Amino acid sequence: MNSHVPSIEQLKEMGLPAPTSYWPQTWGWWALLGLLAIALLALGIRAWLRWRRNAYRREALARLNALDDLRELPELLKRVALSMPLAPQEHQRVPTLSGADWQAFLLRHAGTPLPEDFSRQLASLAYGLADVSGAQREQLLAQCKAWVEHHHVAA
To answer: Is 153:84 a contact under the CB 8 Å cutoff?
Structure first.
């Protein structure tokens, strides 16, 4: 009778659409991806340069941790000051600094507060004139470590 009625056997399964690509399809997304890659590369280079620039800090902290004799402490801080990236005229003055000038230099570049007689303590250590107790030793080492870690430079 009804020969025009489709049957279920005549139905065909539809094909699935092609999978959508996750890659950007327009030039704007490619440009944004390129800018992001350049920014990440620049940040990586900047971090690497900062890491290289602070090598003297890492070396000084390692020497501070391995320090046996406190008489080596003033020389170590002077070496750190000589290794700092400073203006040429200030860098030439560092080897001759002592007393109030050395204290002013340490305070000017300190990232943390230092005692007012810090350079005097260092000078008395250099010549073996100071008797330092265990607590004073730890406090002095902590102050020196803080100065090495947190001193700031203009460059």
So the answer is: yes
Task: Name the residue type at position 137.
Answer: R
Please classify residue 77 by burial: count the beta carbons closer than 10 Å to its beta carbon, then call 0-12 exposed, 13-18 middle and 19+ buried.
buried
pTM higher than 0.90 for the full model? no
pLDDT in tens, the chain (155 residues): 556 777 888 888 888 888 888 888 889 989 999 999 999 999 999 999 999 998 999 999 999 989 888 888 888 888 988 888 888 888 788 888 888 888 888 888 887 788 887 788 887 777 776 677 778 888 888 888 988 888 877 65
**Contact present, 50 and 153 (Cβ < 8 Å):** no
Three-state helix/strand/coil letters over the chain: CCCCCCCHHHCCCCCCCCCCCCCCCCHHHHHHHHHHHHHHHHHHHHHHHHHHHCHHHHHHHHHHHCCCCHHHHHHHHHHHHHHCCCCHHHHHHHHHCCHHHHHHHHHHHCCCCCCCCHHHHHHHHHCCCCCCCHHHHHHHHHHHHHHHHHCCCCC
